[in-house]
Amino acid sequence: MKNQISKKPEEFRDRKLTDTAATQVVRLSIKTAAGEMELKKEADHWQIVKPLRARADDQKVNDLVAQITNSRIVQFVADDAGDLHPYGLAEARSTITILTGDDKSGGGGAGQILQIGGVPEKEKDQVYVRFAPRKFVYTLPNKIESILNTKPNDLRDRHLVRFDQNQLDRITIDTPGKNKTVLARKDQNWTIVNRNNRAANGAEARRLIDLLAAEQVTNFVADVASDLPKYGLDKPQLTVTLSSFASENTAETTAGEHPLATIAFGKIDGETVFARVGEEPFVVAVRRSMLDNVFADPLSWQDLTIFSFKPEQIHKLSLFTDREQSLVRGTNKQWQWVTGSGPINTMNVQSLLNTLASLHATHWVTNAPAAAFAKSQLVITFTTSPDDKAQHKLTVGDSPPDGTAMARTDESEGTFAISSPDLKNLRAPLVEPATPSPTASASPSIAAAPTAGP
């Protein structure tokens, strides 16, 4: 009790600058001699509204707001009714204003205003401030100065684009001079709309979505996109549109496609490419390799599943290399020769059937050279019905240096690559290797009886 009585009155005062929590703040304004920066929270995301309109980095702005609301008073100096010149607050050099959603403080919703003044002569690690809601002059740690040095670009969202993946169910890829690609999602499956809703490579679609969501801007090039030809954005080399799609009218939305974001890619500049998102008024640069990850050819988006059968469905099988070999299932389900002879290697045949029935491509090949199939290394035809009317054909062409082999089927347009292990299984010999005959046992030699002399 004695210790409590001996304390100075200010030691009992609340040293929190404000009772406002960082999460309550919806608007922030910083004014310095260099200019004014204003930020506003819209739909749970921060936006820079002055000196330019741009997306802000939510985490960085939240950290900045928390630095203000969590500030602790070092000294209680004086009420603000007297002369403020000694504190550099008669004409404050900087002002920070925070507003909450229902802020009535500071007079008619003006917000909570924190004025930054001079530095105490004896405490160089502090700075004088005037906090309007409490009508008092304090000192705060001078780390508050770091807020005043914040530039708009320090707080900008460096993500290339912001979109809600849960709403995304259509991707349109447009490259001048090439067929447009339209990918559509239903549940977790993707199709190529402009390829008669052929199954698309869902893993690649999800990879592209994740890539776009994570892509970071390497440089903010121009805050005003007034000279689009300079950046090749008047006629983009590639445009990606992310949309939601409604098949019919609802209370919330009308039927049709509703763009979430459109990303245009322009000229290449070294290791970067210029880009612009929708109607955002600025130009940015992103990694040049981003372009390599967006397939411009609709055929490249096809599903990697080439055949999807059960091995036991295959009824007849013919292989053409430098000769023809044909097998058919007999009435006892055992394989027998149609063309060819010798003991059948049932293990290799089963391996071939397993590979062929569920054949998958490693990737689709764009601009495959015409000479790739000038001389096929393997042609396989097979049927999947007992009457042999359901026919299928696989043609295997050249093998690139990467160990894969280019292939195509009559059922799909385009060229794809198959893996080296799959090619090995497809080319495995169907005839059992000849079993070497056992070496005849050497008979013991019998010495000739000596001939009697005359």
Account of the 3D structure:
The protein is α+β, with helices and mostly antiparallel strands and 454 residues long. It contains 8 helices and 26 strands. The chain folds into 3 domains: 2-155, no CATH class; 170-301, no CATH class; 311-426, Sandwich (Immunoglobulin-like). 13% of the residues lie in helices and 33% in strands. Strand 12 (189-192) and strand 13 (198-199) form a beta hairpin.
Quaternary structure of the protein: single chain
Give start-end ranges of low-pLDDT stretches.
Answer: 104-108, 445-454
The helix fraction, in percent, is: 10-25%
Q: Give the integer mean of the pLDDT values.
A: 89
Counting helices, strands and paired strands, the structural category is: alpha+beta
The count of β-strands is 26
N- to C-terminal separation?
149 Å
Indicate how many domains the architecture comprises. 3
Count of alpha and pi helical runs: 8
| Main sheet specs | 9 strands, antiparallel
Strand content: 25-35%
* Major sheet strand order: 4-3-2-1-6-7-8-9-5
Estimate the global geometry from the Cα principal axes.
Answer: elongated
Radius of gyration: 38 Å
